[in-house]
Structures are given as structure tokens and as C-alpha cells.
């Protein structure tokens, strides 16, 4: 008998991680409005996305892991000072995080030409 427990475990953990990431990103945006960037918040966002990437990979959900990896790379460039944290970068980060949150919520999305939804990923793995 097949169980949805691994998927439920993944979704519960992913929701917590993405909420933490969303809070960090909102705080970063608030700081930008005040003319400052808190490196601790950027690091917290990076760690959340890194953790999500590892979780998705551990459960075999490659599309969200790949997307998180791209967001992680962008954040690393910001952390290393190679990329400024302007409005355009913030917009990309918000859009990517929103995309991950919608995927986690079960809304079908397209990643690299594949329709993906976490609730449908279990079928993909079989």
C-alpha cells in the first residue's frame, strides 16, 4: 500500500522553510527602503533557500530543487558583493520565492518546459 506520508512530510517542512524565507525577504525589502541592507538577513534568506533545496533534493523533487539552486546562486552573488541588491534583483527574488510557494501549495506551474506541482510529483517519481 502506497502512502502519501513522505509527500506530507515534505510539504509541512517546505511550508515552514519558505515562510521563513518570505519573512527574511520582506525584511530585506524594508531595509532597502530605509537605505540599508542587513547582511544577516541576506544570509538567513540564503540558508532558508539552501535548506529548501536540500529538502527537495532529498525527497527527489528535482524541479523545485533546481529552481532553489538558481535562487541560491543569485543570493550568493549578493552575499559576495558581486551583485547589488537593487529593485530588479529584489523583484527576481520575490518572483522566484512566490513561484516556489505556489508550487508547494499544489498549483501547477511550468519549470523548464515541464508541468510541475508538488502534489503531482509523487506520480512523476513512480
Question: Which characteristics define this entry?
Answer:
elongated; 126 residues; 74% helix; 5 helices; Four Helix Bundle (Hemerythrin (Met), subunit A); disordered C terminus
Structure notes:
This protein is mostly helical and 126 residues long. It has one domain: HPT domain (Four Helix Bundle (Hemerythrin (Met), subunit A)), CATH 1.20.120.160. The protein is built from 5 helices and 2 strands; from the N terminus they run ααααββα. α1 (5-33) packs antiparallel against α4 (87-104), α2 packs antiparallel against α3 and α3 packs antiparallel against α4. It is elongated, with a radius of gyration of 15 Å.
Helix content: over 70%
Number of helices: 5
Structural class: mainly alpha
CATH topology (level 3) name: Four Helix Bundle (Hemerythrin (Met), subunit A)
CATH superfamily placement: HPT domain
* SSE pattern, N- to C-terminal: HHHHEEH
Tally of individual domains: 1
Write down the Rg. 15 Å
Largest sheet, in brief, is: 2 strands, antiparallel
The largest sheet has its strands arranged as 1-2
Based on the coordinates given, report the CATH architecture: Up-down Bundle
Percent of residues in beta strands? under 5%
Q: What is the arithmetic mean of pLDDT?
A: 83
Low-confidence stretches: 108-126
Q: Which CATH first-tier class would you pick? A: Mainly Alpha
Number of strands: 2
Compute the separation of the termini in Å.
14 Å
Globular, elongated, flat, extended or rod-shaped: what is the shape? elongated
